[in-house]
Amino acid sequence: MKLVLTGAAGRLGSYLREPLAAMCDELVSTDIADDIGKLYAGESYIRADLADMKQIAPVLEGADMVIHFGAIVDEKPFEELLGPNFVGSYNIWEAGYQAGVKRIVYASSIHAVGMHLKSDFIGTDAEHRPDTFYGLAKCFTEDLGRMYWDKRGLESVHLRILSCAQVTNARALGSWLSYDDLIQLVTRAIDTPSVGFGIVYGVSNNDRAPVDNVKASFLGYRPKDNAEQFAEKILAEEGPVDLKDPGQMCHGGPFSSVDLGQSGLAQMNIVNDRKET
């Protein structure tokens, strides 16, 4: 089996490379970075721009599946996101179809439904309510994946990741996806025999998880980690909840309250614990 991983130079990509290389005959990692460090057995690296079909199409030749994690991972003005996050997704699906790829596993996001209230306990069938242009790109790609399945039979699994980073705030007590559970989720999205088109929330087995993932059980994803282990320390440090702040009441967190085009990550304490090879 040949797999292609986009966004290989990113933080989440750094944790996926080794397990992906171990489960296939050939892993092609790609990003726009000059290099990604030491390669694992069976892994090669190709520098390519997602927004350029002439660069990305050759990378997908002969691939069985694509794990598409490449994108700008923050809110930006629409014009900055258009190439990598919108056009880039189209290029992956169209190049994948032309190359005969069986399945695309996509790093979607809770920000596709970020304006829903956390108290609504939404499922994977919740209507799109993006909180930013970044979230809008996730909506676009989910709909793109559904269309390519309906019209062309190209399978895809869309992983609506809530927050895959160290637990540093009260929101993460519900939204946390551990790196081990991320790896399990991606693995199940690859090795499940048939998926058609599917959406699954990327979240660990948290006591306070604010979403209903029951309709994603067909993947066999059974998260093992729980953010409750961090609750006592985090809650002792947090201030009172502002019930008028969308950033505290909505699924998108700070992305729900920032102005369009303004960074959501700037309001979050994300620890860059990228895995080094």
Short descriptors:
alpha/beta; globular; Rossmann fold; 14% strand; single chain; 277 residues; 7 strands
Structural topology:
Elements: E1 2-6, H1 11-22, E2 26-31, E3 43-47, H2 53-59, E4 65-68, H3 78-99, E5 103-109, H4 133-152, E6 155-161, H5 172-175, H6 179-191, E7 197-202, H7 231-237, H8 246-249, H9 254-257
**Helix-strand category:** alpha/beta
Into which percent range does the helicity of residues fall?
Answer: 25-40%
What percent strand? Answer: 5-15%
- Total separate domains: 1
The biggest beta sheet reads:
7 strands, parallel
DSSP helical segment count: 9
The termini sit apart by 23 Å
In words, what does this structure look like?
It is a single chain. Helix 1 (11-22) crosses helix 6 (179-191), helix 2 (53-59) packs across helix 3 (78-99) and helix 3 (78-99) packs parallel to helix 4 (133-152). The chain has helices spanning 11-22, 53-59, 78-99, 133-152, 172-175, 179-191, 231-237, 246-249, 254-257, and strands at 2-6, 26-31, 43-47, 65-68, 103-109, 155-161, 197-202. The chain starts with a strand and ends in a 20-residue tail after the last helix. Strands 3-2-1-4-5-6-7 form a seven-stranded parallel sheet, with helices on both faces. It has nine helices and seven strands, in the order E-H-E-E-H-E-H-E-H-E-H-H-E-H-H-H. Helix content is 34%, strand content 14%.
